[in-house]
Amino acid sequence: MPDSAPTALQNWAGNIRFSPSRFEAPATLDEARAVVAAAPRLRVLGSGHSFNTIAASDATMVSLAGIEPEVNINALTGTVRASGWITYAALSAAVHRAGFALHNMASLPHISIAGSIATGTHGSGNGNGNLATAVAAIEFIGPDGELRTVARGDEDFPGSVVHLGALGVVHAVTLDLLPGFEMRQYVYDGLAFDQAVVHFDELTSAAYSTSLFTAWGAEPQFQYWVKQRTADQTHPFPKANWYGAPLADGPRHPVPGVDPTACTEQQGQTGPWHERLPHFKPEFTPSSGDELQSEFLIDRADAPAALEAMAGLGDKLGSVVQICELRTMKGDDLWLSPAFGRDTVGLHFTWVSDFAAVEPVMSAIEGALEPFSPRPHWGKLFSIPIDDVRSRYPRMGDFEKLRERVDPEGKFTNDFSAAVTGGTAR
């Protein structure tokens, strides 16, 4: 492979810029293993859809995107083994063609599998775990360049799935599959704040996947998205309204006033799961990246009280929030998953791209949510002290021991992961 000179990189939003000493783009798995073995320190560049320094490094940066991706479906075991750098859009299309489905998808299908799993990224639905819960096995390139597989049932498995990039370079994952299914999506306008608070559980349990969107402000209202499996729909027509919120008379974008062309089909049009579970179509770039994002995850039982706590910040939020989305997920046993040990609701904030204006409002939200022990999304902006974040993960100490055993020299550590795991950044 040719020698790689230092290069300047940035994330998708452009708010994080860094200059690794080397940038490597191997064309084969063997080349990738050689890069990993030779590098004193190394981080992996995925789809870049993070908003903090979780991926940033001044050492060697490697992208596996130049390696021909693999998707191998095993109908007998109901699993798919796929290259870690493939996007959910590409994977879901292949899975659908074979007659299967993934249990869930995030709002954007453009993101990579490995990066999404490593950070505990999620879709929605009271009965659906986050994306990492579909992992049956995960395959790493270790610090010596050797391949290592951790499978469900192995002692290290619960600590290895959501790993923040600190356990190695993921080159493949095996995911559980479901039989393929079709869905219909409906949107309702103008759900009053008090109705959303009082009926939160009923709203989020009404379909396979639901979302509540609000731009906050002095008198917040919600846009309510309902994604139903057709097999679960007990009558051919949707409800005319939900607690006073009428069925939308046309397609909607989550952000008020934005053209909905990039959004997945609504108004009850039947379609396959992978064209309804995400909010956005893969052939569109949903925005130019002119935004910042934060997300705070709390116990689902605390959602009504948390909404009431944030209502007092409505005016402040309205000045810097493009949109706020509420999504739910089932609790899990993955050590660093933000849904570890509790059924969870995520309060996601898409901000304007002015960090100076966003920072004090973000801090105010963190203060309002403090009684509910919020866990920030690992790949998004937050200012909660890292020791407080660490304390909210009961198995953090076990993860630290696992990292020390798997990567004793800290090859895969950067400043972010070192802070999270209590180490010293080099």
TrEMBL record:
InterPro entries: ALO_C, FAD-bd_PCMH, FAD-bd_PCMH-like_sf, FAD-bd_PCMH_sub1, FAD-bd_PCMH_sub2, FAD_lactone_oxidase-like, Oxid_FAD_bind_N, Vanillyl_alc_oxidase_C-sub2
Protein origin, superkingdom: Bacteria
Domain FAD-binding PCMH-type: 16-180
Gene3D superfamilies per UniProt: 3.30.465.10, 3.30.70.2520, 3.30.70.2530, Uridine Diphospho-n-acetylenolpyruvylglucosamine Reductase, domain 2, Vanillyl-alcohol Oxidase, Chain A, domain 4
Keywords: Oxidoreductase
Name of the protein this chain belongs to: D-arabinono-1,4-lactone oxidase
Source species: Glycomyces rhizosphaerae
